Hints:
Elements: E1 2-8, H1 14-26, E2 31-37, H2 42-52, E3 56-59, H3 66-72, E4 81-85, E5 89-90, H4 96-106, E6 111-113, E7 116-117, H5 128-138, H6 142-145, E8 157-161, H7 162-168, H8 180-190, E9 195-197, E10 202-204, H9 210-230, H10 235-240, H11 242-249, H12 254-273, H13 279-297
Parallel strand pairs: 1-2, 1-4, 2-3, 6-9, 7-10
Antiparallel strand pairs: 4-8, 5-10, 6-8
Helix pairs in contact: 9-13, 11-13, 12-13
Amino acid sequence: MISICIPIYNFNVINLVNELSNQVSQLNVPSEIILIDDCSHNKFKKINEPVCKTKVYIQLEKNIGRAAIRNLFLEYTNYQNLLFLDCDAIINSPNFLSNYVVALQQYPNQLICGGRIYPKTPPKQNEMLRWKYGIQKESKPVEIRSQQPNKSFMTNNFVINKAVFEILKFDERLIGYGHEDTLFGFELKKRNITIKHINNPILNGDLESNETYLAETEKAIDNLIRILKFTNHDKSFIQDVELLRVYYKFYSLKSIVKAAFVMSKPFIKYNLTKGYINLYLFDFYKLGTLAIKMDAKS
């Protein structure tokens, strides 16, 4: 009934695989765990191999990226429902898998998202940006996610029917970090495929440093610009993405935004990397970065 798909890159997945294995053993439906390593560093392969080799485990010799590796699971899965989990997920409920089984019985063939939560205790100062952004922007109760179901789609914890996924897939033109979930959610919306949100979150306990997350944010903006071109600047897509919506709303003031950003960037970047987090400043950092990158690529 369910194939659990975990793409791995430079992360210790022993606890995740062990917890899922325990829950699989208690299910009364056919299930399997499949792991594909996207050319991780050798030290992580050595850590993961003893546990992963007891499952379906594939090691890639070349990194293919976040979109392509998810599509690759189609070649190795045996069941009609694919549960995708990020390798840094923490399962914090003993009923995590059984909750999905119940949901699949209630909503057959629908794409189902379980959600994401973050630790309630604040982390170290050098991880504060990712935590605060996650708490305020991503960790939303099911009632809020259900209001705009496709905009709330995230790739870290969802179930999709295999036949549907074979038709859609992730866009493999996206190689780097970021926004593959944004594009996928938009493609679902275009095809009138509504996402069902349930209360079955994973815990995101692995937080990037402020500096790393800021760098990843800039890479994600590069991908967002690529997607904008893929969609031919689709107005519906722009309206669905807050950063793009704000950018075009204040397009006539772009030169002022760029000038203000260039002047304030060192100050904002210093505060964000040091853990003095103001999400309004972070939003402006993204807007200014987008404005500069859009001009550079035009």
